[in-house]
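Protocol step 6 of 9: fold each sequence in the batch and record its structure tokens directly after the sequence line. For illustration, a two-sequence batch is reproduced in full.

Sequence one:
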Amino acid sequence: MSGSRDEGAGPHLSGLEAPLREALERSLADRLAGSPGAALNLDNAFWGAPAPRDLGEALTRLGPTCLNVVARIFERLRDIDPALGLWRQIRYLRNVWCGGSAGFKVVYAEPAAMRERLDGQLAGTGGRRVARDTVLGGIEHQRGALLGALARSWPALLGGGEPLDADTWREVHEPDQEAVHLCVGKIEPRPPELDDIHLDWRSPVVGVDEATRRCRYGLLISVVHWLQARFGLGKPVFPFQRIDEELAALSERRREAAAWAAFAARWRDARWTLAMRGSEGAREAVGWLRECEAMISAQEEA
């Protein structure tokens, strides 16, 4: 690939919101220092490579798609709790993923305090509402395989009990739209897989049962949501990833090489800033993807 050299995320760190940057820096610094509980922090940045030297290198290894996911979750937690009490309960960010859902594993500063703050957002005072899942609504986030979790949870399902392994809360915002889902494990010592915060691309929540203070779900959208989260069916296009994949294939596109080199240089200058701008940056990246796809179509038709 010709054009300007990609210097990674480092030169663009000023674009991160300060509380988000602080959490990322703490996660990396404590892992590098060998602090207790920090061994899995920012794990993607350590896979198959020496330890990153600084936050810029760590985020470069995460890539713009994963960085954008983190920024979008920060935004949604801020919309729920503008005072950032929820965000400050995140001590460490662990591995980041994107697919049928997208998010990161976490270490909470105080799990009990996180539960209390989440329950305190039921009324939505000052921000968006958050409500607990029913036992069935949170079944995917219990330990073990789904059928095993269902079997173990059967008494709670019939008797109105509580989830066995993890309590889960969902953002109550717009049905069938992107929303945040928060999981807080109940087991000590804490298994890493139970504590996470992620985006559901198509939220199944249609409201709150005010009597039980639990989420209400739409039947059809719940099926769609489950198929997407479980199997990735209908998951969204990730524009940062798609554009990078197309540019990685530049060696196969010898026609219009100058135009592709110019696009690649502009994209390298823009992508990290866009990734750090969360939802707005993701929407702008879709425009870049359309431009990229138009160039591909023009070549194929020529």
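Sequence two, same batch, same settings:
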Amino acid sequence: MSLPLTNPRNPSRLPPPFATPQSLSDWLKPRLAADSFGSWGVKPGTKNVHNLWLEIAEGETLLADSIPPVRTVEVVIVRIIRNDGKVLIESHQELSNGVVRNRRRPLSEKMKPGESVEAAVYRAVKEELGSLVKIESLRNLDDEICNNVSGNVMILPGSYTKKVEERVSASYPGLPACYVLHTVDAEVEGLPEGEFCTEEIEEYGDFSERGLADCAVSCKRHYWKWVDSESV
């Protein structure tokens, strides 16, 4: 299957439907089980309402007005393959609250509105592996043009697949989620052969600079290792 040109959601960044995390919290409370909602950001490995508000504000998440609400997320999954056929997975993450969250999955990233799969792949590599793989610039992602990519990030032709999964979100207990998964295989030069660690780059972008992400649970470090392709 060939790569789709864009994520079909509206590429324009609109004001979030909830002015503040508190307004989102007030909207969610009568729509979710109290014990589940109360565990957000408290149960190890979960995120809090500030994280969800940021996802909505950045256009990464859509919430259906239902009881319970359904969270829809478009995700790009990058199966980075090296010459011997091994696949790179993120074994675990170190979060800002000190919690270690197990992952054991390939590089993945929530997509932005109007973003192409190709642009999302390069952005994912930049944000999570950028301290090792230098990507000088991604010119105008909204126009789906990715130039000046060093480190030889190459999406393998014919590897694209798409599927939809529906399940309760691990990050937000009690909140049903619909994940639209766009998966590609890729080769990335410049990565270590053994296990390694990287630091997250600009997880919340402008929101971090403006202090709006201070109360959110963020990822500080990613831990990676190579595994046999059959185990992924």
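Proceed to step 7 once all outputs are recorded. Observation for sequence two: Residues 10-15, 137-151 have pLDDT under 50 and may be disordered.
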